[in-house]
Fold this protein.
Amino acid sequence: MLTGMACQNAAFKDNDRILARVYDVYLYKSELENLVPADASPADSISISQNFINNWVRNQLILYRAEKNLTSEQKDFSKLIQDYRNSLVIYEYETQLISQKLDTIVRNSEIEKYYNENQNNFRLNDNIVKAIYVKINEKSKYLNKIKKLTRSIREEDRDSLEYYCIRYAEDFGLIDHEWVTFDDLLLRVPIPIGNPETFLTKNTFVQHYDKPYWYFVNFLDHRLSESLSPLSLERENIRSVLLNKRKKLLIKKMQDEIYEQALKENNFEYF
């Protein structure tokens, strides 16, 4: 696959093939194992291998130059390496501790308490709505039926509306149990609105004609930008916040216990 690029040299590694050399550093064929995906074509295989070899050569050349031009002190990374290793070991220990001992059950009462006590942290950046919308061709014989069902506020009419919309509407959405941004809704329903806040405050049902389609929108609820975000939107965020607090407390407790035990056993001292 890489003919003309390598030669055999048993003095370096028996039964391995040299693919490149930079000064006294050698790249062997074994170092490319698992580099090429099993389903790669022959052309892709050659290209991937060649790119790897070329990059290896360039990196080794730069490394050689850097080694020659930096002082011993500048190249001494032993403290950085030790600090990094220590951080990784501590992080791994904390991760195992959390996986074994963290209580991940967050009760609704805890979420609601946090929400009520921190409402200034839950302000909306966008106008949001709950709505039902339908796009239907003007020639549909079910146009008036669908309009009536869209306008209805009765829960029992939702199934009927969905039945007709699946069969006869160009597009529809029953967003009655979740919040979406008003801007996202307008991408599906191009109704003229003017000022969004004024529009949402004054309208509950809107119909708009854009040949050859009618658009019907029933706004079931809305929240304006900068107002309090609904708990249903913030529930998962709050759960993450509370779990993160528990993690920090668990780690702090572990640290304190280790310190107190070492103090009792006289395992450290200050000078």
Remarks:
- Confidence is low (pLDDT under 50) at residues 1-11.
